């Protein structure tokens, strides 16, 4: 006699029949701190009152598309990230056009495919230091804002993007010397974001912004006291806690200080601690903030008499400010005669990636100071410095220890996660693995 099956029986039979297909399908993974974890924090930094949300953590980095020939998307350790941002598309005089260089345009489809096949959110960043020239124009009027929204939606459709990162450097401030800017940039930017978020596609996009150590400036040129409205249209921000000290500074200093409140007043130019305090005080929620981390450092030409005090390296020593004395970094191309968008020579940046410090003989393959290289770790900024006495080159950078300290800070302050500039700068994931370990990140797959 035929017996009809209950609905629960049918479901079980279907599940068993589909089991081989289900087990062979791609997994969807999230990176999460272990539940019940109670991370510690380095001395001198206060524990936040909000606990880390164990539901997820944003583990992200920027991918410089112009380096795709030497570092293709297949080189990325995708399983260690939850989001990856392709840099950069750039603003143009035509608000309906957002540009990509030829290498980037060729690499972007491969990047998006690789990210999405690994369950990683794929974003495209618009702007950057040399690509923000026309942001102000693009959001200045209602007509321009609508055209800019449509241009972005066109990119999203063309490249099947999951989100957009706005790296405007900077609303209401000049940034690069020829950038257009306006006192009402921040207000216009908010109106633009609201319009983009209000579209059918915009409702589903991940929208992020790379921001400075202080909140967006208002029409008076001062950081805004309340940026809560930005939090309603942006999923998160990434505080760019790097380039705090460099060749433009009066002395050598930390590229990416975790803290500077413990330094002399003259040496306080901002840090992760001051930045998070500033943004949260302006009502941007901590759980929508990711901390920007640097996989690179800045070099300085420092005489041995200034660099060495006794058996230790001096902190904040003077350096040779003559541009011709700037050490050539691993990111520089010798004999480079290129110009920036303003027509000025790019010159020597002096930037050394972490991997470049290893290949340049400053660090061993494991990321520690090489023989003959002097090393010190500044307990206040929680960042290291190395010095080659023969070449008189000092470099302020981040190592595994400083990444770990920042990871503990992220957890203790209840931040959403991290964003590394950039994914190509690490060596064998030394920095990234240290960060994962310090934060207690686990990969949880479904």
From TrEMBL:
Residues 57-442 form the GH18 domain. Gene3D superfamilies: 3.10.50.10, Glycosidases. GO terms for cellular component: extracellular region. It catalyses: Random endo-hydrolysis of N-acetyl-beta-D-glucosaminide (1->4)-beta-linkages in chitin and chitodextrins. GO terms for biological process: chitin catabolic process; polysaccharide catabolic process. GO terms for molecular function: chitin binding; endochitinase activity. InterPro entries: Chitinase_II/V-like_cat, Chitinase_insertion_sf, GH, Glyco_hydro18_cat, Glyco_hydro_18_chit_AS, Glycosyl_Hydrlase_18. Residues 1-25 form the signal peptide. Transmembrane segments: none annotated. PROSITE patterns: GH18_1, GH18_2. It holds the Pfam family Glyco_hydro_18. Keywords: Carbohydrate metabolism, Chitin degradation, Glycosidase, Hydrolase, Polysaccharide degradation, Signal. Belongs to the glycosyl hydrolase 18 family. PANTHER family: CHITINASE (PTHR11177), CHITINASE 12-RELATED (PTHR11177:SF317). This is Glycoside hydrolase family 18 protein. It comes from Mycena pura. The lineage of its organism: Eukaryota, Fungi, Dikarya, Basidiomycota, Agaricomycotina.
